[in-house]
Structure prediction request, 240 residues.
Amino acid sequence: MQIGDLALLGFGDEGWGLVLVKAGLMTLAVSVAAFLWGLGLGMLIAWARIGGNAVLRALAEAYTVVLRGVPEILVIYLFYFGGRQVVTAVGTALGLAGPFDISGFVAGMLAIGLISAANQSEVLRGAWQAVPKGTVEAGRVVGMTRLTLFRRVIAPQAMVTALPGMGNQWQSVIKESALVSVTGLVETMRQVNVAAGTTQEHFLFYAAGAVIYLIITSLSDQLFRLAERRSLRGHQHGGL
Prediction:
């Protein structure tokens, strides 16, 4: 690789810099959407495993076993190609004119979010169970409702325990977002593939892709560390 080749990463007419930045933002967008979707669903699954009846606990357990045991790429294919068939069948049954399709963003976000939900539910369940029973009993003694008890006692303490694990789950979601490239969504991995194939500068553009992912994960790690420090304020040894 020559020095002149680095001009391909610039923002000029012949540079790929701008499209790579846009692809990086798309990676961030699909990752955030998948993580938040997984967080909401993961909270429901964790609640079902802790406070649900026998049927809900069994369903939640089955969900985590299946989603943690199936390859991520298979789930993405299921949502992207299988989702097309479902949308087509529903549209045809309603008498709507085709063609019917499902976007790569939606398919990837749903698939990665479902996988993340299974893992996040384990983190949340462990954090919930780590809350000292004495503080929960004290809240009940003073007459707190279940919602108030959760909001003022359980959630703040569980969050301190959950944040490191949730940070790890976020990093996993970012890396799994690279698999969404199989749907044609122009995110980082898809864009560096196109750029490398067009210019035949494979090392340059795959290295650039690695840098983009490292920037996103490094900044994210700093944000989670900051959140952890803030959550530890007022706790013993919180400054360590």
